[in-house]
Design brief:
Layout lengths: L1 E4 H5 L7 E6 L7 H11 L6 E7 L3 H5 L11 H10 L4 E5 L10 H11 L1 E8 L3 E2 L5 E2 H8 L5 E5 L3 E2 L2 E2 L2 H9 L3 H8 L4 E3 L6 E3 L2 E5 L11 E8 L4 E8 L3 E5 L8 E3 L1
Parallel strand pairs: 1-4, 2-3, 2-5, 3-4, 5-8
Antiparallel strand pairs: 6-7, 9-10, 11-17, 12-13, 13-16, 14-15, 14-17, 15-16
Helix pairs in contact: 7-8
Amino acid sequence: MRVIDWKDFTKGTSPPKQVALTIGTFDSLHVGHQRLIRGVVDNGCGALGAVCTFHQNPALTLGRRPFRGSILSLAQKIRKLKALGIALVVLIDFSAEFSKLSGKRFLDLLASRLDIKKLVVGYNFHMGRGRDTNAQELVNMLSGSQTELEVVPATAYQEKAVSSSRIRESILQGRFREAKDMLKDDFRLDLGETSIHRRGGSSWVRRSEIHQVLPKIGEYRVLFLTENTGFPGMLCIEEEQISWQRDFAGTEIEISF
């Protein structure tokens, strides 16, 4: 899989030309997102499956409402996209300047570098300044073009639409079975970019270093994942840190809830 930063993408690094593309934050890559991914991987036109997404959730930059943490780290998102069969990822470092682009201008920039044979979006898709472009606007924009548009309807779980916001709330409340059903995977805390402090058999990480959502303060049964295996244990989530007793070999890289 090839990963290209937006600046390189727009300044001449040559990506593959013919693609089937989906665009989104993909904060969780939940079952609904996975339908979009399948639509671009199994595109029926021989094009490479591609995703345009973000380094960080745009909500962090826009600051319009409190943001309680990502569900996936960037590294986890990239690994999952690769496992789902994506061949190309264009990564945007979202900024205040980028947020001023209209949806049409953004799509024009993508189309200037890629031959988009197919575009797959969700029923509630929005992009551009002030969310000015939705799925219906895309229908109008692409009318008469060589790009096939597929709009994927909502995926339901317990009679409600699956969403990253809903999964985030499930994690916050410690409803990990519910989150797993919507993710089709365990929620995992990525320790790859944190500093693990140790004293004797105790280990801890400062909460300020964690950018993923965490459940409320309390103790939780988890699986500490190393490169080779997993070890069951208890994780204590406190106001300033998360901590655990370490009685296993290897270095923790993820914590699975």
